[in-house]
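Colleagues,

Please find the record for the four-part complex below.
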Amino acid sequence: MIINHPLLGPRDAQEFTYLGDASLLNRPDWQAEDAAEAFHDYLYLRDNPAGEHRELWYHEQGDRSWLVVTRNTLTHEILKVELARDVAKAAGKAAQ
Amino acid sequence: MRFSALRLFKEALTGHKGWGPQWRDPEPADAYDYVIVGGGGHGLATAYYLAKEFGAARIAVLEKGWIGGGNVGRNTTIIRSNYLLDGNEPFYEFSLKLWENLEQDFNYNAMVSQRGILNLVHTDAQRDAARRRGNAMILNGSDAELLDTDGVRAMYPFLNFDDARFPIKGGLLHRRGGTVRHDAVAWGYARGADMRGVDIIQNCEVTGFRIENGKVLGVETTRGFIGAKKVGVSVAGSSSRVMEKAGMRLPIESHVLQAFVSEGLKPFIDGVITYGAGHFYCSQSDKGGLVFGGDIDMYNTYAQRGNLPVVEDVIESGMALIPALGRARLLRSWGGIMDMSMDGSPFIDKTHIDGLYFNGGWCYGGFKATPASGYCFAHLLKTDRPHETATAYRLDRFMTGHMIDEKGQGAQPNLH
Amino acid sequence: MHKLKPITPLGGDTPRVDTVGSITITEVVDQALASVAARNDQAGAVQKALADKIGLSLPEVGQSSQAAPYAALWMGPEQWMVMAPHDSHELLAAELKQIVADTASVSEQTDGWCRFDVQGAGLCDLFERLSNAPVRTMGSGTAIRTTAEHLGVFLWRLAEDHMAVLGPRSSAASLHHGLLAAAKSIA
Amino acid sequence: MTQSNRLNGGLINRDASLSFTFDGKSYQGYEGDTLASALLANGVRLMGRSFKYHRPRGPLTAGSEEPNALVELRSGGRQEPNTRATVAELYDGLSANSQNRWPSLERDFMAINDRFSNFLTAGFYYKTFMWPKAFWEKLYEPIIRKAAGLGSLTGEDDPDHYDKGFLHCDLLIIGAGPTGLAAALTAGRAGAQVILADEDFRMGGRLIAETGALADISGADWVDQALAELASMNNVRVMPRTTVFGAYDHGIYGAVERNADHLIAPEADKPRQTLWRIYSKRALIATGAIERPIAFENNDRPGILLAGAVRSYANRWAATPAQSVVVFANNDDAHQTARDLMAQGIKVPAIVDTRPDAADVEGIEVLKGAEIINTSGRLGLTSVQVRTEKGYTTDLYCEALAMSGGWNPNLGLTCHQRGRPVWSADIHAFVPGEGLPVGQIVAGAAKGEMSTEAALQGGAAAAVAALGDLGITASPVDLPAAADAPVSISPFWHVKGAKRAWLDYQNDVTVKDVKLAHQENFTSVEHLKRYTTLGMATDQGKTSNVGALAVMAELTGKSIRDTGTTIFRPPYTPVAMGAFGGRAVGKDFHPTRLTPSHKWAEEQGAVFVEVGNWLRAQWFPRKGETHWRQSVDREVLQTRNSVGVCDVTTLGKIDVQGADAAAFLNMVYSNAFAKLPVGKVRYGLMLREDGIAYDDGTTARFAEDHFVVTTTTANAVLVYRNMEFVRQCLCPDMDVQLISTTEAWAQYAVAGPNSRKLLQKIVDPDFDISNEAFPFMGCGEITVCGGLRARLFRISFSGELAYEIAVPTRYGDGLMRALMEAGEEFDVVPYGTEALGVMRIEKGHATGNELNGTTTALNLGMARMVSAKKDCIGNVLSRREGLNTPDALALVGLKPVDTNETVTAGGHLMNATGPVDAAHDQGYVTSAAYSPILESSIGLGFVKGGSDRMGEKLRLVNPLESQEVMVEIVSAHFLDPEGEKLRA
């Protein structure tokens, strides 16, 4: 596979390490009342769709960026690639 | 019709006119007591044991395509009970014992062949871990032997002993491990179930569950609604997709495991060898092909195909271990979709929906579990209690903190 | 001056040079390295400080820049590898920290890396056997961080027939072996 | 022997005569020959045996789809089993042997299977061999396994090198026949980056196998011109002998180039083959078509070939399988075979054409509406039996038969991403359907356009279209006029009434096997394949699948379209495993990491051990020491009694800087770092988000905004990755920057009561390292040896008064030598990983054996390190009930009651009395060592509720090695539990 890195352009997916569902960006509040359940769902119940999937990849053999890649799990077509830090920052701002 | 050498002899002399279908293709009835979703090895075994061991009747197996077309038809055929943890080893040992009597049990030669599995160790720490595992196996009634380098060399002199990046320091030998002709497992269970009245319905995809007041009433299919008192879902590889139709999210990701076979070769490898310093395991089929595999492709996927980096990684490891492989040729590679669970261990459990049961999360280890999985799932479906060897395979174990993590990799499905 | 004698990444007293066919592979040791990572929202300030003090403009993504005796490679978002001759700038990290002060984090990287300069006409033939980088279309000044022979490396194209390879110092021997094997393969 | 079946002409170099042997017998051939063409030219038709029935076989084809003519090429470590003689390029000195026969190819004992074929029907083995139970594994299976396979490996190491590489292009053209060449010329002239690859050693495809494909120029001449032009273009890479074997995601193709298979051996340091990963923007499948046989009684004898193959042999290789050849076909194309043979003076007794309305051929009798119903000739064809349209039977004497059931597009690569071919009623074959890999296009015969004209025009048009997608304008190029026209074909699959008519030659699958599969309800294509083994042989059904499908369609009464198809999987043809291995074999399997003191340690005669990719000194044997324990005991004792030095560079080091560095560490470690003073070090425990212990190490604070974190050797990369995850994904607003400095610093532990005295001789006098000025858990930046910058940490893994000192790596070798020299007066000793391990066990420090991915802080006795006052990774989930049961495992020390006994890591722990089984397991031993200080074997282990069981005796059981030892639970801190030595 080839991941079109937002900064570096197309790079072989072999340079990356895969983590999984991008909802791992949304770490729950550790002090919330339902923290135990929230963390359970956060860590263990991830999206596993047959189709579009937002997922985290790490450019380990490159610039060390974490990326959010939107990819179809049936065709492997990659629809969008973003810097995870930008996504996380935007989510943080939106939450404020 | 019973299969036997005598029968074969008679048929050979009379033009094989007497063989009938090994299973029927019935039309689905309106309702059953038990509907098993998924005509793979586990689903067919479940139906077989429900009928044979638990006296159940009115059973249907619904298969979206053709039976045996899932992972039972695309694996590397290994059977073993060399697990470490209490939650696992008794179950896999139960499975191995069922394998040992399977052919006579279902009157089908599935070529169960216990030629031994050797897990190589390359460091002192690996040897310590192998010792702990071997002892756990023995304490659970399985078999294990710890070999030193010379012991390994005596079995497989062609391994790389002299020029290895990671020298072979020994291995854990599990003599009762081995291989099985995988397709025959599906067919044998199908034939055995069919003979006991189970309706095997191919080309019948489940499109939804009819659930009212927290109770399942049946399944919607491409061939119409089929009522059921109990529905058991056994569709590893598609578990998330199917259970989503019942509104459930599972601690499972789907990944592709590639498998490989070489051209047919004269006997070279007797048993199963597992490399401890790279992703490679290998056996040789009765037809002569070297059947091997390694790591999963790391990303979530439902496409039954993998990519080149893993092919190279697996064969690099193979070449590092067996330098003589260079002149053999890779004949075919294929991919199967694995239910990779969050701790690498499976589920055989009721769901929160009354009458709906789930069996899945087998990672890349489902084939060897087929008999016990079917037996235990049948036990659960019939009695509503888990079989004694499958009590740990609960869906809520991550909530309670009772993970069964053989590899110690945590909630990272692609590392199990 | 202290009395400890340095050795090269390949373990020699002097840098190694190998010539295979048209290819020359040279171990480069006269190089000090320091990473410069901008603190939050300070990328502009870092760039200005380095430009003002040593005339070095930090490069864009995937590129390098030079302002003798300094040079810099792009490493990652708002992160650069700055280099200078070791003989004259052994304390490069300290020197740069003086310049950038609190606008950037600076870490000494000098001996984290080994460097081999590969020169010769068959450069592309050699590197397409080691790396997936599109070496035939890599212009001079391009710097790609990728893998070669299972190792994380920088490939830094200095000229049509000149590529610098920076790899992990502990694996210098493996990297050198890989370069030599590829050179022999295409010779 | 003379080349009795060598014809005139052909594309062989008659000036270069080559000698070779087959089954020990010598022959001559020419440069340009394949092994098969040379053998045929020498009058040899018998080249192999089939898998199941050991039927005598000769080549069926002239290409890579060959099912029959498989040989063992070369010998020793280079022996290649199952090599297709039809593509093996002849070289001087080639030596090949037939396979799957004993004692000889002509007289094969196992041919007895053929007599029993009635018993050995499809799937027979599933129905028998079950009684008595033990006999399967003891008797039946060993016999079956012995018969397995075709060729053999010798077990010797493959001595050759293999390269791997990466290529990039705009357009990858696969196949250099008329389609591919037209496309390459079009794209090449447009200036695109083009790769043209063909599996053959001579490019041209059917153009070099046919006599009259082009109108005004010979096919071979035009091919030469085209290749010459392509060779002159810098933007075109022409790759003969290169098989593109797989289509992977996003335009990546796998290809293998055979660099030296046409040589007796590769030149020194040169590869045998190269595995290329080709990154293409567009890929054109121009792979042509594969002819299919017709199933009829005994259609597998040596001398029965496909008609197109016979033409290839005659026209390209100037070889004929025999002097008398009958043609059997359902289409016009095969008529050309008769014409070409006639032109070469070969007798063609008749063309047997199944079509009643077949065209006439000048000078040859065409038996229209006729079928071949049987053949004769044990080791080679002697005659065929024909049934005429009117029902008469007649024998035709011939030594070869050229048959054709039509052509199938060679569409393997279109299926690699599970694209399914569709049935074309126009050409009676499957053509590429939907679901082609992205960026892939198909043209020419591979697309089902079965004429040279269509190939040339289609190839050029495909190139124009593909480049257009990429924004490159290509103009039509002048192409030669083609002479052929689309051929007429009428489907014909098998001759009815045959007893045994082969579909899959290699695996001996006959029409009857398909019928039996149908009878037993194995009617889906996948069931059919699996039950009969159809298409599973080395040719993967290239010549057999469609025929079998047609037979099944007939049986079920469905159309072929409704019966289905099977898809092909990579690789397109079998690929040598060595090519996938590349250079990463033997010692080069993984890169090696050497520590800064490696060279010095080598000089000391150290024994090294692999730790991940690192090589570390395990111990340093001295003269007179004959057992490793002597060395290790000495290293431990000398360190504990005086001073020792150990290279600990392999521990991961991560520079953490930034205004929020402390807050960041608070997040990644379970314990707090915010209040760690500058100049101090603190031990940290890192959890995974699931609450399991992950890694540990010390962190030093060099400035308010600068920490240096150390990780375990094994987890250095993982911890760094994880920290970047926290930095970028969880805490994106924190001002923190990370970089690994593991390799930049050579770091040595200096341990033992004399460590300070030793260091004081090295550390420059400006720096006071007295206990008061530089206490336990202190750190600082100093200079050593007259001004070299260094970092000093007062930390201890051994439990002794100890330091770790770091200098830039290039000076690491020098520092080790300086330490040894300065330490001479203290009898300083270098120690390796074994002694390190002994001392940490004596001290009760956990390492990877204890942090095994399933243990918690509680298990490790560090529950208090998980701060409840702050968030950190793993905090919440570490509190789950299942991880906090009252009988949770606890790390303890274990000592044998009898000090002569040994504690064994991996042993399980049972109560002192009671049953020994899994249900009564109390825990396990994680680490063990002999302690020379305590003069006893000791161990660490996890015991249920262990912290409350001090002094209790347990049985350590190790049934694997028949060991049972009584041990006592003690504190894991065997030595200096109060840590007085550390602080001394």
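The domain at 117-177+253-341 of chain B is CATH 3.30.9.10 (D-Amino Acid Oxidase; Chain A, domain 2).

Comments are welcome before we finalize the supplementary table.
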